[in-house]
């Protein structure tokens, strides 16, 4: 048997389906394949569900109510369905899933390449036993779409004395050097990290973008519960205004911390947080912002009120008994003169010793050597089904609906992919076919 390039023994297996990734998407897929009696293996670079522990900060909580945590054959059944699990609770809950159906899981095994040939696919991986090559009729890529944190190239030009990290590296306020902190990005992660630092008494500067926001609770119920009842999470992406462009939208910022509440950046500002517009460039200790602060705050509040108005219309149309409607009114406005002065910021003068980048992620599918990607490196598909027979993607935001990026929607997407896959895969017992 020849040696692999790594110097370890190369093996080859035959399996009907390879599922890459053992997060909630990969495990949900495995559950359906188990039900269908389809031979498969789930390959995971680390351990099942590890990202919930490895890439979330200490005070992290879900922003969706616990009742939305539903995977095939497995649902949250704890005492607080309308609450929000913290990081450890999510890890425990998801960690209990594999034991309910015993997936054919191979952990600590990183897939290094996926290629196609006339008979199917070749999946090469590196694990504790060295390099293994698997031949498969179908492959489900369930590694999600958040692989590499986005950091602008010019960040390298900032003064090396400034500690820089991404949202996936942030742990807690005490893990950062003493001094003020600049958080860049006002999506869900950026807004919550800014709050975490603010509540710890740190001086926080927040550079905000175009992220919208939503009320935590409105007219007696969680807004996301209203929206689910209204069918918003089940509406296919193609039916939303702008169609597939919805996949590029930033999620609304809100938090499940301390039982759940709104994140109001204006309130933070009134309490001492320093808000800035869009950060565009920097060098040394000098940063430059665009004068977009007022517009961004107004836009986020407009979305907040628009969602509330949609709920109002639903309540009226359905005749639901609920508390009276309300409208958010700004509690703080940026001073125009001060806003202009803050277009330039000297990190040293402001006492800023750390910068937390929370401006999103980009996908990394360099190991997938099959032509199914658009010009941005994102897979082209219809609800996870690509134009290449036997190749599927799962776990992507807006894969089919707004709910696709949540536990609630992943279950349905996994069922769709598994059903489509079962029509084309001839299940066969796994066997070694040599190398």
TrEMBL record:
InterPro entries for this protein: Auxin_biosynth/cation_transpt (IPR050982), CHP04046_FMN-dependent (IPR024000), FAD/NAD-bd_sf (IPR036188)
Entry-linked Gene3D superfamilies: FAD/NAD(P)-binding domain (3.50.50.60)
Secretion signal span: none
Pfam families listed in its UniProt record: Pyr_redox_3
SUPFAM superfamilies registered for this protein in UniProt: FAD/NAD(P)-binding domain (SSF51905)
Transmembrane segments: none
MF annotations from Gene Ontology: flavin adenine dinucleotide binding; monooxygenase activity
Keywords: Oxidoreductase
Alphabetized NCBIfam families for the sequence: MSMEG_0569_nitr
Name of the protein in question: MSMEG_0569 family flavin-dependent oxidoreductase
Organism lineage string: Bacteria, Bacillati, Actinomycetota, Actinomycetes, Propionibacteriales
